[in-house]
Amino acid sequence: MRSYLYVPGDNPAKLAKALTVGADALIVDLEDAVPPSGKDAARTAVAAFLADTAAAVVDGAAGGSGEGSVWPRVWVRVNPGEWGHVDAAAVVGPGLAGLCVAKTESVAQLSALDGVLAGLEEAAGLVVGSTKVVPLLESAAAVLAAPAIARGPRVARLQLGEADLAADLGVTLGPDERELLWARSQAVLASAAAGIAPPVAPVSVNFRDLDALRASTVALKRLGFRGRACIHPAQLPVVHDVFTPTEPELAVARDLVARHEQAMRDGSGVCLDAQGRLVDEAVVRSARRLLTLD
Which of 153, 176, 224, 290 has CA 20 to 30 A from 196's CA? Predict the structure, then answer.
């Protein structure tokens, strides 16, 4: 997944349109994008949207294959705490990839949600454990707890909620956003240590400055993030371009893997790349990871 497009859950027209704008995944928002007075209506709208999407995929309307290969996967951002359990009860079903859990602070929150989800999955005829979660780390406490949260039940990957995090820390971001460098690296390190997918890069609220978006996305990719959350369809082409391997990059990776495999057959654990530099298993592991994105 290169892109995760946020869509407000209380706007059925935007939900329908979001399926067609080219995002790899959607994050349908039941939290900040929906006012308290509109939560119940939004839950109903999102539940209907997910049911319609799942039915269309089964019927083969999404790409004609019956597998939904053209349409994005749909995640739902739920409210924190008990209200998140209410959200989950409305949306868990065949059309849901998983839940983005707002303001996750501890593994205890994820464990409580895990129990709720197990009951909902059983009731819906789903495999228990199939609904994954992406904890949103939005406070200093959450970032410090990231290593434990990353190992929590059902966690697929992490995501930083940087607007809330910056407010909690009392920092003002400069042009290079170095003020959040440690927090970002903590999310990457915690994910790698837990053996889960790399974290999703945080949103950029300036959707008009695409040059700045490209520069920050490249920096986040170099830091270890894979894919980026977006708030506007205009951001998608830039994010896709940054996170899509180029053919020259793939060719180098294939060559490295082939050279290493030949070296292994010859009884050596190391080899030389096309420039004559020493290559070992660690370098080849990165090449294999790149090829999985092809």
Answer: 176
The pLDDT of residue 245 is 83
The answer to whether the beta carbons of residues 69 and 51 sit under 8 Å apart is no
pLDDT digits (tens, 9 = 90+) for 134-164: 999 999 999 999 999 999 999 999 999 999 9
- CA gap 135, 187 in Å, rounded: 11
Residue 172 phi, psi (nearest 5): -115, 125
Phi, psi values for residue 101, rounded to 5° = -95, 105
Buried b (16+ CB within 10 A) or exposed e, 29-61: bbbebbeeebbeebbebbbebbebbbebbeeee
Which residues partner with 135 through β-bridges? 101
For residues 204 and 175, the answer to whether their CB atoms sit within 8 Å is: no
Going from N- to C-terminal start, the domains of the chain cover 3-243, 247-291
Overall CATH class of domain 3-243: alpha beta
Distance from C-alpha of 46 to C-alpha of 61, rounded to nearest angstrom? 19
User: Over the stretch 25-44, which tens digit does the pLDDT of each residue have?
Assistant: 999 999 999 999 999 999 99
113 CB contacts (<8 Å, ≥6 apart)?
84, 85, 88, 99, 101, 133, 154
Q: Cβ–Cβ contacts within 10 Å for residue 206, how many? A: 13
Asked if 109 contacts 61 with a C-beta cutoff of 8 angstroms, the reply is no
Beta bridge partners of 229: 4
Question: What DSSP string runs through 195-254?
Answer: T-PPPBBPP-S--S-HHHHHHHHHHHHHHT--SEEESSGGGHHHHHHHHSPPHHHHHHHH
